[in-house]
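Provenance

Sequences were taken from public entries as deposited. Structures were produced by running a predictor on each sequence independently, with no templates supplied. The record for DUF3243 domain-containing protein from Oceanobacillus limi is shown for reference.
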Amino acid sequence: MSVLDNFGTWKDFLANRLEQAQSQGMSQQTINEVAYEVGDYLAKSVDAKNSEEAVLREIWNAASKEEQHAIASSMVKLVQNQGNTQ
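Predicted structure for DUF3243 domain-containing protein:
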């Protein structure tokens, strides 16, 4: 099963990668930029595996570059907050 098959699994995967990046000293700005690059790649190159990903792709494609950076930053915050509440 791919991490993209289930949105909860995808968020867990992102949270683990985020934790690794932070533990290796990656800055928040760099993390947000990497999140933007991943989001852009996924929107352009990977088929949505579930309804949440399909909605995110539609929002991403409708957004300006500045708004896409905000979406990526919001995804980072989503998984950061998820880790804080578990």
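Helices lie at 7-23, 28-45, 51-62, 65-85.
The two ends are 24 Å apart (CA to CA).
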